[in-house]
Amino acid sequence: MKKTSTRSRARRRAAPAPAPGTFCVVGAGVFGAVVAERIATKLGAKVLVLEKRKDAGGNSRSFFDPATGIECHEHGSHIFHTKDAAVWDYVRRFAAFTPYRHKVMLTSRGRVFGMPINLKTINDWYGAAWSPDEARRRIAAEIAREGISEPANLEEKAVSLVGRGLYECAIRDYTAKQWGRDPRELPESIIRRLPVRYDYVSDYFDTPWQGVPADGYGALFRNLLDRPGIELRTGVDFRDVRASLPAGTPVVYTGMPDELFDFRYGALEWRSLRFEWETVPVRDFQGTAVMNYGDASVPYTRIHEFKHYNPERADAFARPATVICREYPAAWKPGAEAYYPVNDAANQARFARYRALAAAVPGLRLGGRLGSYAYWDMDRAVAEALRLFDRLARGEPDPPAP
Ligand SMILES: Cc1cc2nc3c(=O)[nH]c(=O)nc-3n(C[C@H](O)[C@H](O)[C@H](O)COP(=O)(O)OP(=O)(O)OC[C@H]3O[C@@H](n4cnc5c(N)ncnc54)[C@H](O)[C@@H]3O)c2cc1C
User: Fold this and answer.
1) pTM: predicted TM-score of the whole model, two decimal places
2) Mean pLDDT of the chain
3) Which structural domain range is residue 157 located in?
4) Ligand 1 site, residue 257, Cβ cutoff 6 A
């Protein structure tokens, strides 16, 4: 891979245009990196990857903190996890993964609980020692007491799934902080299901395969992109250079579709986040990688402590210093980091119009979480990228919107 970083507008314009026949992939996140790797490896074609940030990795990017040697996930904790054997086989060609299995704890009402809700959470919350069947009966009775047959908002939906007690402990204030609104004002459709485990399994993800790249996310992205045929240009916004691409260049665009079309139909809405970083002079700040905060009086939703992802890195793990990051939900406006799509009917309708515009541009394919206006975990991004590559290799169009 040849990597060039072009910073000024003048230098961007001067960057050589790719040779005819070159594919252009916009965005070097998981999706773009996988598509580029497949095109270069399987088709033997040249790929120009344009990334507007200073490095590859997208939201999965990490960096090694120079003072502590701890690998920190720049956009909040990123744990690779999947049920998809093909995706797991694919990613392990580019990185070995540690055996890390994700656990999440919740501080609420002055106590600490396990998440997602399991039998320990239930017994801790109710101060009980119920068996699985007894807990099922008690929660079912609590749900029945609410008498909600057709939930009209997020609160009613959540209460109808877990009962009022657990809702208030684990969901109400956390959700209000996350969305910046009272759950009674949020649509019930935001929650499809709330996993409640009537056993003591404490893994956060219900997936057989999970971990973090043993040599870091940077190595994973280098191994994907560092290959003959791929040129990565960082610090380059596609919108600044697209006019210089040879006519007919096939483009896989993983940025925001509304931005690509100059917000013709208005902006697609997102929720954003603000991260507040701190190095704390203790060996272990919170005893786990992620602590959620369920109280309205705490303004952040969670604290990440990154050294817990890599206990095998003994030096950094033992050092009496740790990097933590408080995650604050934030309103989004164009230009801010777009993290969670506001998946309501108005935004979906607007997205459908942008998809139609994109479908009318010869050679252009939208992809990735931004281009698809969706929340995807990394494994989904890999799976969708592999599918898009298959269509591209067969010359098939992308399927119509669901
Ligand atoms: C807080 C948070 C935590 C998460 N935790 C996990 C987790 O634990 N496990 C998990 O599996 N998933 C997690 N995810 C999801 C994960 O971040 C996504 O699956 C992943 O980022 C999708 O990759 P992508 O390539 O589609 O998008 P991105 O990573 O966003 O990459 C898109 C890239 O395109 C670039 N780009 C956009 N527009 C342009 C342009 N015009 N020109 C040039 N470049 C452009 C962007 O700079 C970016 O680098 C989390 C997401 C969030 C928000």
Assistant:
1) 0.94
2) 93
3) 117-190
4) no
